[in-house]
Design a protein that fits this description.
Elements lengths: L1 E3 L2 E3 L2 E3 L5 E7 L4 E8 L2 H18 L4 H17 L1 H12 L3 H25 L3 E5 L2 E7 L5 E5 L5 H15 L2 E5 L6 H13 L6 E3 L4 H10 L5 E5 L2 H12 L4 E5 L5 E4 L7 H10 L11 E5 H17 L18 H16 L3 E4 L17 E4 L6 H4 L6 E7 L2 H9 L7
Helix pairs in contact: 1-7, 2-4, 2-6, 3-4, 3-6, 4-5, 7-8, 9-10
The structure holds nicotinamide-adenine-dinucleotide.
Length: 411
């Protein structure tokens, strides 16, 4: 059992002042693997104050200083990639092969892109040719609170942390309380890379606590959030009173339109893409819209792909899909599968309950619903599990109309 109860504030690992312990659960076997601390308001305030103090100096550092530090972070990340993959698999259940490649790789890709962009970015430039004496100076926004979800942890965390640091902002990261281990490892790397104290801070916590406190904090200038639409709305409201800049990446119900002349692998690819990361991707193509003449065959193919999809624990090698992240998520998915059955969608693969042989762990049967119409709950709500809905269409116009017919609020 890992003890991860400290936060990283002002360049040091520190004990929480008044926080509460929380266990991190391995979704493959439901065993606790680490204890973190859900931070208190004092922890939040301490981190924000550290970021505020560090901002004045950090925001005017020479660009080359920032490039050098980010290059050191990149070396750390590359060296410790195997450990990062283990942490991701342990905390959120992505199979090792996926963690080692796409999960860790997405973070590295964002690191490289940010460094490349920083190298080419001119913070001071002329307005235009006609006004040679007018200058544009790009300045860092200030203290940025970065709130992230659990499904692609390093993808989302690095996509926020590194560009913010590159721009000269100081940051407080609040990773998902469900998947905090990869972020704690990243904080170790940032520490080893030698960033000045207070530039990067990590406070663990939940949405109602540290998340809400950061969103409303008068000394936070911007909140960047990825997660559910529900939380995005709450954050936007909380940030309004202090007129913060807010950047949101929320949920989705992606449509994959397959016409009759699509290549023969289009359906198989669509199912696999939907099930990738056990369906826990905001861009998962979860509504497969199929032209009527191909429809029956597509349903058959999709059901066969689902039936052949292997399931397994995250620590095992192989191309299987893992469990979903938590008991809450498992229960939510079961509720949505039941809603699909109750509404009369035709279940052609998977369904309720755990797959055979998987009593422990949050494993879900790869599930396909056919004969879905776009008014059904399973066509409107983001399931965030390996559940695909198939909807027939007769014309391109109809397909586009169905694809665009999503509720403003998804979950
Ligand atoms: P979530 O919204 O429950 O949690 C995300 C983060 O927000 C966590 O750190 C959580 O502690 C925090 N949070 C929750 N409520 C909050 C509040 N009221 N105030 C401040 N912070 C709060 O989402 P999740 O379950 O971790 O992630 C799944 C969701 O994220 C899905 O809807 C998915 O589509 C979405 N997502 C979107 C993208 C994208 O790029 N658009 C990427 C990944 C995930």
């Amino acid at each position: 059992m890992l003890n991860k109860q400290q936060h990283y504030i002002d360049g040091a690992w520190v004990d929480s002042l008044g926080g509460a312990p929380m266990e991190v659960i391995n979704p493959s076997n439901e065993a606790p693997v680490a204890t973190i601390t859900l931070g208190s308001e004092t922890d939040t305030n301490t981190a924000v104050a550290a970021a505020r103090r560090a901002f004045d100096d950090w925001s005017i550092t020479d660009k080359n200083t920032r490039i050098e530090l980010l290059e050191r972070l990149r070396s750390q990340y590359e060296e410790r990639a195997p450990q990062m993959a283990e942490m991701i698999s342990l905390e959120m259940g992505a199979p090792m092969a996926l963690s080692q490649t796409a999960q860790v790789g997405a973070g590295l890709g964002h690191l490289k892109t940010a460094i490349r962009e920083l190298k080419g970015f001119e913070f001071e430039r002329g307005l235009n040719e006609r006004s040679p004496n007018d200058q544009i100076h790009y300045e860092a926004i200030g203290v940025a609170a970065l709130i992230t979800p659990w499904n692609w942890p390093m993808n989302q965390v690095i996509l926020k942390v590194v560009p913010a640091l590159a721009a000269g902002c100081t940051v407080i990261l609040k990773p998902s309380e469900i998947a905090p281990l990869s972020s704690l490892l990243l904080a170790e790397m940032i520490d080893s890379a030698g960033f000045p104290a207070g530039v990067f801070n990590l406070v663990n916590g939940d949405g109602m606590g540290v998340g809400s406190q950061l969103s409303a904090h008068p000394d936070v200038d911007m909140v960047s959030f990825t997660g559910s639409t529900r939380a995005g709305i709450a954050i936007t409201k909380a940030a309004a009173d202090t007129v913060k800049r807010v950047s949101l990446e929320l949920g989705g119900k992606g449509a994959n339109i397959i016409f009759a002349d699509a290549d023969e692998k289009a359906v198989t690819r669509g199912v696999r893409h939907c099930f990738n990361n056990t369906g826990q991707s905001c861009n998962a193509p979860t509504r497969m819209l199929v032209e009527r003449s191909l429809y029956n065959q597509a349903v058959e193919t999709a059901a066969a792909v689902a039936a052949k999809t292997e399931i397994g624990a995250a620590e095992l090698e192989g191309r299987h899909i893992g469990p979903v992240v938590s008991e809450a998520q498992y229960n939510k998915i079961q509720g949505l599968i039941k809603a699909g059955i109750d509404e009369g969608a035709r279940l052609v693969a998977g369904g309720l309950g755990k797959p055979e042989g998987f009593e422990r762990g949050y494993f879900v049967k790869p599930t396909i619903f056919a004969d879905v119409n776009n008014d059904m709950v399973i066509a409107r709500e983001e399931v965030f599990g390996p559940v695909l809905t198939i909807i027939p269409f007769d014309s391109e116009e109809e397909a586009i109309q169905i694809a665009n017919d999503t509720p403003l609020r998804i979950n």
